[in-house]
Amino acid sequence: MTTAALQTVLTVPERFQGPQGIVNGGWLAGTVAEALGGRGNAVEVTLHAPTPVETELRLEHVANTASLYHGDKLLVEAIPVHEDLKAPEYVRFADAARAEAGFPGWQGHAFPECFVCGLRDPGDGLRIYPGPVEGTDLVAAGWRVPYSVAGDDGVPAAIVGAALDCVTGWAHFGPGESALLGRLAVQIHRRVYPDGTYSVVGRATGREGRKLFGESAIYDGDGTLVAAARATWIAPR
User: Which domain of life is it from (predicted)?
Assistant: First the structure.
């Protein structure tokens, strides 16, 4: 006996790109993780290949696995993680916003078109610009959530996943440096609300050859953990 797959057709608007023409990895992770359902449960999403924007894709959900395909090519795969993700420490919104002045992307940005950390117009991108937090090993940014990213049910998991993504890379990157997201585990504990103000915090947790590791979190104004993530990036050769 086999379990039938639930299939959904998905086309990602160009707005949600990371590198030019490629869907932002965190946005994808949140979208595919949501297919496995359940706020509070961690989901690990592996990006097997770049996912093109404005292209008809197929999202399949079979048992405890969700997979995204372009034709027969596997792009993304998600599985549950039976653990709570570790989060970097809380940074007050005022301190997180102050840290943005040190964002390395001001000096040189490999992907200025990125939906999350790119130099996009207000209300278009998320405009999350992490910089070093003085006296710590953290990077942080103040996230002012635009109404334009909310749906009928509030801010979707795709946007939360996106917000958790780039900060883990900027915990490693200097001006002009870059890598591509290879894996992101996401755990969403609470809703994110449009026009809310949140602290997005990241930390580099290690490096192994071309692999860069990091963790991130979103906190609300009173220090309550909203969401957390664990990332693996692949640096260029």
Answer: Bacteria
Per-residue pLDDT reduced to its tens digit, 70-102: 999 999 999 999 899 999 999 999 999 999 999
Task: Let me know the angle formed at the C-alpha of 173 by 33 and 205, rounded to the nearest 5 degrees.
Answer: 60
> For 95-152, how does the pLDDT look when each residue is reduced to its tens digit (9 = 90+)?
999 999 999 999 999 999 999 999 999 889 999 999 999 999 999 999 999 999 998 7
What letter would DSSP give residue 9?
E
Residue 31, number of CB atoms within 10 A of its CB: 25
CA distances from residue 3 to 9, 165, 220 in whole angstroms, order as listed:
19, 32, 40
Q: What architecture is the 93-234 domain classified under in CATH?
A: Roll (3.10)
- Stated pTM of the model: 0.94
User: Cβ(129)–Cβ(143) under 8 Å?
Assistant: no
Helices marked H in the chain: 25-36, 93-99, 157-170
Answer yes or no: are the C-beta atoms of 33 and 80 closer than 8 Å.
no
Angle between helices 25-36 and 157-170 (to 10 degrees): 140
In terms of DSSP bridges, do strands 225-234 and 211-219 run parallel, antiparallel, or are they unpaired? antiparallel
CA 74 to chain centre: 20
- Count of other CB atoms within 10 angstroms of residue 67: 20
Domain boundaries, the chain: 6-81, 93-234
Measured in degrees and rounded to the nearest 5, phi and psi for residue 134 equal -55, 135
Q: What top-level class would CATH report for the domain 6-81?
A: alpha beta
